Automatic annotation (TrEMBL):
Pfam families: Abhydrolase_3. GO terms for molecular function: hydrolase activity. InterPro entries: AB_hydrolase_3 (IPR013094), Carboxylest/Gibb_receptor (IPR050466). It comes from the Eukaryota. This is Alpha/beta hydrolase fold-3 domain-containing protein.
Amino acid sequence: MVMRASAEELPHGAKISGLVAVHPYFLGRGKVPSEDSDPIIAEKLVKMWSVVCPATTGVDDPLINPLADGAPALDGMACGRVLVCLADIDVLRDRGRAYCEGLNASGWPGEVEVVEVTGHGHCFHLVDFTCDEAVRQDDAIAKFVNR
């Protein structure tokens, strides 16, 4: 939506002030280190993508890889700040990190904030939403939204 809003005006003059990406599901060619933590899950995520989007061109489709050739330029994002939440045991963690690095390197003038929790995997907060790290992540999201 944020990338689309950079190309198309939103209805009623609406503006997007920020983006929160919680444990983003990004894929791409070439392994990243976090995918080695659970190769079976990493492969299942690739297979799931082809089910979710049967018309996909693969893991470098801009819909799943914002850093792929042909993806919209990140420097045109239609918001001024981004919060990316990562989990250290998530096989997708390094894809999220790469997204942050790509955003910073793109020339986009906004602010990138990263919150990384320890001891948890992808979307842990949906199962154990009262644990300390889930509360810390929720607090970071609330502070970001309320700024």
